[in-house]
Amino acid sequence: MHFINPFKGLRPTKKFVSSVVIPSTDHLSDSIITDHKKNNPWSFLNVLNPKINKNLNEKDLYLMAKKKFELMKNESILKKETTKSFYIYKISSKIHSQIGIIGIANLSAYDNLHIRGHEEIYHDRAQERSRQMMNLNAQIGPIYVIYQDNDELNMIINSQILLEPLYNFNALDGYNHSLWLINNNEITSKISEIFNKINKVYIADGHHRIEAMLQLSSYKKHQNPNHSGNESYNYTMISAFPQNQTQILDYNRLIKDLYGYSDEDFLKQVKKKFIVNKELTSYKPKKSKTFGMYLNNCWYSIELKDDIKQHNLFHINNLDINFLHYYLLEPILGIGDSRYDKRIDFLAGFKGLKELEKIVNSGNASVGFSLYPTQIEDVISFADKKLTMPPKSTWFEPKPLDGLVCYDFE
After folding, report:
1. Out of 42-51, 62-71, 242-251, 259-268, which region has the weakest mean confidence (pLDDT)?
2. What is the dihedral of CA 352, 356, 357, 363, to 10 degrees?
3. Which of 49, 66, 113, 407 is the most buried (most CB within 10 A)?
4. C-alpha closest to that of 255 among 342, 317, 339
């Protein structure tokens, strides 16, 4: 049995692709979302985020989304492949490029640890995604996974991208997206065999999606007296990229207040554990165990003192996020569990340090911290040890688009 397989994807026609697909809404302001929905009636924002007034309840919203999705299929905005296929997917900008493969993975591979995660699940979010997929009877966006680089697979990918792509366009996320179709049985079988040799993939982004799919699969299994294990709901769509091409950005922190300290007293407390230097410009850490701190219109570099660096109470302290939490955010600023503490906010690295400054200067936060990005080796290490990282530890950039290829369960 192959744990990653080709499938009959449901995808936009070339004419509509750029107006149908959507990036993570983290990239989009409310005004961009509103304008895009208005100017692109076939956008998946009108399916996944159909709310047009505050009086609609959840049942009405789901009904509206279902009708829109069915209309997109009936009007041939979306068409289903006639043969089982893999898709080569390239995302690129002037400074970064990554090329991977879209296919479907057997959900049993998650239980068997061929698919490994590193992030804790919020069950309410997973349930919401599960209801959404159940309503559409389809998975609109892939789970982003990474795999260890493989020369044999690289050769196949490199030979295929010499051909004309199905799509090549710029999306709202600022990246160029290209897609190639592979439906040759010999090649698709070879790709599945290679992934069996690779043996495992790691979830980069999509922990809630895979949990949602597990819930949906379990429900459909119990509803089907003739369940065989081969039904479409036993699989989930993934977009797999090689480890050496993935990019993780910093995930920065904003704290709403100084826990009663004045600026001066707060700095005195920080200096007990950290070496603090004032910087002339914004400070982006260039190595682990160092942080930037923006306070009262000033940037500081702060670095854990040597005696603290050597004092690892337990191995998970080796993550920068944990060092910052255990030696500053919790003991000095009183931040508890960052999953629930309302005094902490998170800022993805693609928004830049100017955005961090803007938030602090506006008074919506009292201090901001810039972090060195979590390394891919840490992600793999945590996943292999069946450990979960703290919330908002990684921001993988770029992310696969929603709606470029869909996986329906019909």
Report:
1. 42-51
2. 160
3. 407
4. 342
Residue 26 tokens read as: 């983290």
CB-based burial of residue 354 (10 Å sphere; 0-12 exposed, 13-18 middle, 19+ buried)? exposed
The CA R_g of the chain, rounded to the nearest whole Å, is 23
- Burial string for 310-346 (b: 16+ CB within 10 Å, else e) reads eeeeeebbebbbbbbbebbbeebbebeebeebebbbe
Cβ neighbours for 311, distance < 8 A, ≥ 6 positions apart: none
Tokens of 376: 């891919």
Write the DSSP assignment of 128-156 as a string of letters.
Answer: HHHHHHHHHTEE-SPEEEEE---HHHHHH
Determine if the peptide bond prior to 165 is cis (ω within 30°). no
Strand-by-strand arrangement of the 298-304 sheet: 274-279, 298-304, 290-295, 367-371, 251-255, 344-348
Taking each helix axis from N to C end, the angle separating 123-136 and 58-74, rounded to the nearest 10 degrees, works out to 40
Residue pair 251/347 in contact by the 8 Å Cβ criterion = yes
Q: What is the pLDDT of residues 337-371, one digit of tens each?
A: 888 899 999 999 999 999 999 999 999 999 999 99
Structure tokens at 229: 């294990």
List of E strands, 280-365: 290-295, 298-304, 344-348
Contacts 24+ apart (CB under 8 A), 357-366: 357/282, 357/294, 359/254, 360/254, 360/294, 360/295, 361/297, 364/254, 364/256, 365/254, 365/255, 365/256, 366/255, 366/256, 366/257, 366/258, 366/295
Is the pTM value of this prediction over 0.90? yes
313, pLDDT greater than 60: no
Those residues with Cβ within 8 angstroms of residue 346's Cβ, 6 or more apart along the chain or in another chain: 251, 252, 253, 254, 391, 392
Instruction: Give the pairing type, strands 201-205 and 115-116.
Output: parallel
Phi, psi of 23 (to 5 degrees): -85, 180
- The pLDDT tens digits for 227-278 are 998 999 999 999 999 999 999 999 999 999 999 999 999 999 999 999 999 9
Count other C-beta atoms under 10 Å from residue 273's C-beta: 18
> Which of 185, 211, 201 lies closest to 149 in space, CA to CA?
201
Distance from C-alpha of 95 to C-alpha of 106, rounded to nearest angstrom? 34
